Amino acid sequence: MTQRRRSPSFDTMIRFFQQHYNFATKQDINRLIDKIEALENSIRQTVLPPQKTAGAKPATRRRAATGKQSASDTVYDVVAQAKTGIRFPEIKAKTGFEDKKLRNIIYRLGKLGRIKNKKRGLYIPA
User: Fold this and answer.
1) Which of 6, 69, 83, 107 could form a cystine bridge with 73, CB 3.0-4.6 A?
2) Whole-angstrom distance, CA of residue 109 vs CA of residue 102
3) Tens of pLDDT, residues 40-95
4) pLDDT at res. 50
5) Class of the CATH domain delimited by 71-125
6) CB atoms within 10 A of CB 50
7) Pick from 105, 100, 99: nearest CA to 73
8) What is the model's pLDDT at position 65?
9) Is the CB of residue 15 less than 8 Å from the CB of residue 25?
10) Cα–Cα dist 79/100, whole Å
């Protein structure tokens, strides 16, 4: 009688291809990520100035020598003047900015912590 040969398991086939074709494993990729993060941290420490303390305000754009406000400052002032909050169409009407520009400014001001969403579409100063 002849013995029946078992086919190799799926895991065995995967290991064979990884070793034979030098595919990167999850461990290899994690080691590379760790090395890249270590390099980025060393670059940050040598190239970038030290970070400010936790209580410091985030940096803002300087106003031009002409005295004009930046677009972000204009939107912030409009939001700050509204006592109970202001909606997007009202901000658009008061500033005259296009939708895309205004949405980007509102997003940036929110990330900086200068304005907050009271509820969807209603903005208040932080």
Assistant:
1) 69
2) 10
3) 888 888 876 665 555 555 555 555 555 678 888 999 999 999 888 899 999 999 98
4) 60
5) mainly alpha
6) 6
7) 105
8) 54
9) no
10) 17
CB atoms within 10 A of CB 75: 26
90's CB contacts (< 8 A; 6+ apart) are: 82
Q: How far apart are CA 118 and CA 79, in angstroms?
A: 12
**DSSP code string of 93-110:** HHH---HHHHHHHHHHHH
Tokens representing 51 are: 């970070």
Give me the pLDDT at residue 105, please: 92
What strand order describes the sheet that includes 115-119?
86-87, 122-125, 115-119
**What is the chain's mean pLDDT, rounded?**
83
